[in-house]
Amino acid sequence: MADAIVVHDLRKTFTRRGQPEVRAVDGLTFSVRRGSIFGLLGPNGAGKTTTLKMLTTLLRPTSGEITVEGFDPVKDPLEVRRRISVVIQESAADLFLSVVDNFGTFGRFHGLSSSAIRERMDDVLDQFELRSEANRKVMDLSGGFKRRVQVAKVFMIDTPVVFLDEFSTGMDPILKRSVMARLRQEATRGRTIVLTTQILGEAEELCDDILIMRAGRQAARGDINTLKLLSGGLYEISVTFAALPESLENAIAAYHPHRVEVTQNSALITVREQEGRVLDLVAHLGRLGRVLRIEVSGASLEDIFIELTAAAPEVST
Amino acid sequence: MSALSAIMYREGKIRATNLTFIFWDLFYPLGYLLVFGVGMTQAMGMKPLAIGVDYNAFFLAGVLGMASFGIASNTAWSFFMDRDNGIFFEMLTYPMRRAEYLLGKGLFNLLVSIAQAVVTVMLAEIVLDVPIRWSSLPLLAAAVFIGTAGWFFFYAIFALMIRRNDVFNTVTSVFYFILLFASSMFYPVEPLPTPLRQLSWANPITWHVDVLRYATIGVGQPAIVWLEAAGFLIFTAAAFAGALWALKQQ
């Protein structure tokens, strides 16, 4: 099965008068398998949205090659636009129009007949729980509902490629789960989904293939299991004490933790150590106070992400 | 449904959400003619101008030109609305060419401006006895259509290149002041002092209003009017090219 998206040595440089040149994307190469869910991850300013803008004809690359469903977004932008639907990062809707009219105009732009619009709208209104708001102007809806309208639109049409930039912003967990299930279904039907997200659990659960970006370049690439192999000796220890020991931070400092998150009487500690040293740390924690629960696991996507993208260890409470 | 008709459908839907706006669009030129035109005619003692018509008849074309200018700047301003709503960039990923986006956005409002012109001209004849040259109706429709399009494309360049709404509003105010008053919109150009007269002849509003005046009441030398029409067509084409360039820079 051919790739839906192919990107080769993509670069985008921004130049502003009197300011140093910014290389937002710097030699990115990747491809996206048709019918897969591809996650583009990275910290703020890593170049994810710039990459997405170049893939969706919103921005011309400085150099490099892109094909989306076999078409070049620079040379054949219209052919690309016929094959994609896009949820941009910012909230985007016709505020003066009702929910129904937003769907109607979107459908018309994508060549749907009135009857097809009605039929698909029914399905989308139900899935996104927008039925009761159908005739309200979008300007009168809450931020979360506006986002629903924006995301729901891409399910009105059947473009082979869907781009979602931070799609779940403002969605409640139940709706998010339902949208994720729908995205999975769409991918099974052969649609290619490209998404960016800051919520790593979302990417871990949804994406078949992940590219982590840092400073415009590829920091890591692969499916979730491949990425976890990159963690090489990274362990996560989750411990709950009866009462949080005061000496906790001092006690674990010797293990050079990658990350420590303390919440009430629990701590999540990420370390890169030999197995023996990890067991030693577990024993050490046991001596600090009465332990209610302790669990040791391999690194999560979040740990790998932080290791690959952050310069210094992070400690948060 | 083509991209052009889809974008016209969208513009129509948005406009239909505000009936006051539609009413204002259709009738404000007539109101202007009644208040300003009749006021000036009374103040000047109902004397015909040197060109042989009274001020109401003279000012009709000015009002139509002003209405085109107003619709064009409002339509261009709606790019800011689209940007504020976030829909602007999303729409740029829809299956349409940039030129179709520009034309479609303009087309709906061009139709509004034609309806507006028809209402104004009909009521100008009925209420103010302006002697309309009905045989030139196709020329009038073309002048309104191309005139509104030209000014929309002209303003779109600024609406697309300027990021701040308040800066755009300042720019349009400057254009209103300079372009409207240094033109044949409110008074004949010939008696003006030389620098103002030269500025007026170089102003595309003068070309547009002169064609409208010729089409409505038959005043003007045909050779000059056709030259002005050709000049305005070139201005419209250049403004379209500029607006398209500006849209492609987004």
Low-confidence stretches of chain A: 312-317
Query: How many strands appear in the DSSP assignment of chain B?
Result: 0
Run of helices and strands of chain B: HHHHHHHHHH
- Succession of helices and strands of chain A: EEEHEHEHHHEHEHEEHEHEEHEHE
The portion of residues forming beta strands of chain B comes to: under 5%
Mean pLDDT rating of chain B? 88
The CATH homology group name of the largest domain in chain A: P-loop containing nucleotide triphosphate hydrolases
Shape descriptor of chain A: globular
Helix-and-strand structural type of chain B: mainly alpha
Reported by name, the CATH topology of the largest domain in chain A is Rossmann fold
* Quaternary structure state of the chains depicted: heterodimer
Characterize the structure shown.
The complex is a heterodimer of chains A (317) and B (250). Chain A is of the alpha/beta class and 317 residues long. Chain A folds into 2 domains: 3-227, Rossmann fold; 231-316, Alpha-Beta Plaits. Chain A has helices at residues 48-55, 77-81, 99-109, 114-127, 143-152, 173-188, 200-206, 224-229, 248-253, 275-288, 301-309; strands at residues 3-14, 22-33, 37-41, 63-68, 84-87, 161-165, 192-196, 209-214, 217-222, 234-241, 259-263, 266-272, 291-298, 314-316. In chain A, helix 3 (99-109) crosses helix 4 (114-127). In chain B, helix 2 packs across helix 5 (98-128), helix 3 runs parallel beside helix 6 (137-161) and helix 9 (204-217) crosses helix 10 (222-248). Chain B has 250 residues and is mainly alpha-helical. Chain B has helices at 3-16, 19-43, 55-84, 87-91, 98-128, 137-161, 165-181, 194-201, 204-217, 222-248. The radius of gyration of chain B is 18 Å and the shape is globular. Chain B has one domain. The interface between A and B is medium-sized, with 29 and 24 residues.
